[in-house]
Write a structure and sequence with these properties.
The complex is a heterodimer of chains A (92) and B (401). With 92 residues, chain A is an all-alpha fold. Chain A has helices at 18-31, 49-63, 69-74, 78-91. In chain A, 53% of the residues lie in helices and 0% in strands. Chain A starts with 17 loop residues before the first helix and ends with a helix. In chain B, strand 12 (382-383) and strand 13 form a beta hairpin. Chain B is globular and about 55 Å long. In chain B, helix 6 crosses helix 18, helix 10 (159-170) packs across helix 11 (183-207) and helix 16 crosses helix 18. Classes of the chains: A mainly alpha (92), B alpha+beta (401).
């Protein structure tokens, strides 16, 4: 599905670094929406809580870090997730 | 009179008028059509015991896969087919078996000494009140997680927070629960907080399974594979909600009634009526008031022809006061037998936690009846404002040791 077909509250901002790029690709694969903007809300894109739980495990495996789950459930954007992943990778 | 009636209106239940309305509907309009409003679709309601029992148990006609609560009406249920409560047989039965085994009478037995200790600790503020006013609603609010926390694998330090989020998911209309941003925001926040919490717990249990229910969900197989993470989290969420929000409503409603009618002593003097009294307490309180099903095909209910795809609300709270089944249904009669109440539902979705709920209530009432000789209301009880949850949020009482 094209992003423009959805009623989103955010303007499209393209991924700005490799972590954001990988996350956007992962979201596209799971949500079947493209393109994904880095400030788009996971739930506005059609995600639900069950899918979020599954995405969480996929993110663990892809990046080899455990992102706090509240990031995905309560601040669910590629930009926020990427920032958390980068911080986790730096402290690992 | 039915033109103004709205069975989805939480104020109807907060006001205490619901049972009078249900008695009237059962006699005059037992299969009632509630017209749509700008906020939600219309729905059918059944209030007779026989109809409620049928809607809950005839899963071939009435599906659970399109939402089971009024607050989901008109929206698809993302947990359909992946969470026990939202999955029809036969898939439901395959998913249920391992969880059921972890909650059957024998499994629950192993936990009972811990639950007894927890119940004892929960009652400490009642003992300490020594003739001054104690809010029993606040006391009973601690009960569910004290009893099922260890079974679920939830540490003690997280209990208060989880109780609060569970209330946001089940009593989102209550002004003490609702967030300033409104009902939808409240539901969403409670829901996402609990999902995030259980997603973390699931991640831990995947690394290191224990002997708790989340570990059962993580290690069990369903249709030849492990449960997907989304299904694990959705079921853990549902088990927590099923226990936490409902259980406190049972002792609350019953003690408020016994104190108001001066009939507490009569039960306290009959320790032989503990088990039958607990069943009567479940019938009388019925904390989960309804479940929603959707017709899978056209069906005749009573004198109504209902099309396929229509929501039908089974009002357990109305069924449990049906005079065709229960003599003097508004009376609390601790020796009532038989007492085939529907407080735990009916059919394949019968409450999976019924054993631990019954055992916990027996411990609680057993201790109360032995230790408390009489009760006196110290102010009006305040009901939760909700069309799903029947409970009290304040129950000021003076307890006589």
């Amino acid at each position: 599905m094209n992003r423009q077909a959805l009623d989103l509250s955010t303007e499209y901002v393209a991924p700005r670094d490799p972590v954001e790029q990988q996350l956007a690709e992962l979201w596209t694969a799971r949500l079947e929406v493209a393109p994904i903007g880095v400030h788009d809300d996971f739930f506005e894109l059609g995600g639900d809580s069950l899918l979020a739980a599954e995405l969480q495990l996929a993110i663990d495996q892809l990046f080899g870090v455990e992102v706090p789950t509240w990031t995905l459930f309560l601040t669910p954007t590629v930009a926020e997730l990427a920032a958390t992943i980068v911080a986790e990778l730096a402290s690992a | 009179m039915n033109d103004l009636l709205d069975l989805a209106d939480p104020d109807l239940y907060a006001s205490g008028r619901a049972h009078a309305v249900f008695h009237d509907l059962r006699e005059t309009d037992p299969v009632h059509w509630q017209p749509p409003t700008p906020d939600r679709p219309g729905f059918w309601s059944v209030t007779k015991y026989a109809d409620v029992n049928r809607v809950l148990s005839d899963y071939e006609t009435f599906t659970s896969e399109r939402g089971t609560l009024l607050n989901l009406l008109g929206r698809p249920d993302p947990a359909a087919g992946r969470q026990l409560a939202a999955t029809d047989p036969p898939r439901h039965d395959h998913m249920r078996a391992p969880v059921q085994q972890a909650l059957n009478a024998r499994a629950v037995d192993l936990h009972m000494s811990a639950v007894d200790e927890a119940v004892n600790a929960v009652l400490e503020p009642v003992r300490r009140s020594a003739g001054s006013v104690v809010d029993l609603a606040a006391v009973f609010r601690e009960l569910p997680l004290a009893a099922v926390g260890p079974l679920l694998g939830v540490p003690e330090s997280d209990r208060a927070r989880l109780t609060q989020f569970a209330e946001m998911c089940a009593a989102e209309d209550d002004p003490d629960v609702r967030l300033p941003d409104g009902v939808t925001a409240t539901l969403r926040r409670g829901h996402r907080e609990l999902f995030a919490y259980f997603a973390d717990l699931v991640r831990q249990r995947m690394r290191q399974p224990g002997d708790d229910l989340v570990s059962v969900l993580v290690t069990m197989r369903f249709e030849g594979a492990p449960l997907p993470a989304g299904a694990i989290v959705a079921n853990a969420y549902s088990l927590l909600l099923g226990a936490t929000v409902t259980l406190p409503g049972v002792p609350g409603a019953v003690l408020a009634h016994l104190a108001a009618t001066g009939s507490y002593r009569a039960w306290a003097q009959r320790p032989d009526l503990l088990d039958s009294g607990v069943e009567e307490a479940l019938r009388f309180a019925t904390p989960g008031m309804h479940f929603v099903r959707h017709t899978r095909r056209p069906v005749r209910l009573g004198r109504q022809e209902i099309d396929a795809g229509q929501p039908v609300v089974a009002w357990l709270s109305a069924a449990n006061r049906d005079p065709a089944v229960f003599d003097a249904p508004d009376r609390f009669h601790p020796g009532r037998r038989p007492n085939r109440h529907l407080a735990f539902g009916s059919g394949r979705h019968y409450c999976i936690g019924s054993h631990i709920a019954r055992r916990t209530l027996r411990l609680l009432f057993g201790r109360l009846l032995a230790e408390v000789s009489d009760l006196e209301l110290a102010g009006p009880p305040v009901r939760v404002r909700s069309a799903f949850l029947s409970g009290l949020k304040h129950l000021p009482m003076v307890v006589v040791a």
